[in-house]
């Protein structure tokens, strides 16, 4: 089953077939821009500073626009590439490709977040997590809250959550045979 999936999806990377991936690249870029905008919003609302105690909870709301963007991408693929008729497998392959592209972009996205948008986040979260006793020492907190760790986590999360979201969304988006 898995080898069959990779044979099917690998064909999408043939040079002549790359034009078939325009929508996947477009939506991976849209997703990345949405992620950066979300981080600007978190910073602007004080979740990386004054209200950092709420960050742990409110950052999970990011799942809402993330799911919306992935569903919009799959619907776009169905409408504009498959002329309104897309099988579960076709949508799954498209969603996996989008997720892989997002995962590849994730370390760069995380770099922009960590060093451009909100360079104060790591020092703030390290300090606060030690103050409230989440970590016993600054060194323990620094081992958790750093660019390298977040770059790895965001890459893995992009892939895993993208595939899970796609697998569930395609139950509803796929063309149902009568």
UniProtKB/TrEMBL annotation:
<feature type="transmembrane region" description="Helical">
    <location>
        <begin position="56"/>
        <end position="74"/>
    </location>
</feature>
<feature type="transmembrane region" description="Helical">
    <location>
        <begin position="21"/>
        <end position="41"/>
    </location>
</feature>
<dbReference type="Pfam" id="PF13858">
    <property type="entry name" value="DUF4199"/>
</dbReference>
<protein>
    <recommendedName>
        <fullName>DUF4199 domain-containing protein</fullName>
    </recommendedName>
</protein>
<keyword id="KW-0472">Membrane</keyword>
<keyword id="KW-1133">Transmembrane helix</keyword>
<keyword id="KW-0812">Transmembrane</keyword>
<dbReference type="InterPro" id="IPR025250">
    <property type="entry name" value="DUF4199"/>
</dbReference>
<feature type="transmembrane region" description="Helical">
    <location>
        <begin position="155"/>
        <end position="173"/>
    </location>
</feature>
<feature type="transmembrane region" description="Helical">
    <location>
        <begin position="95"/>
        <end position="117"/>
    </location>
</feature>
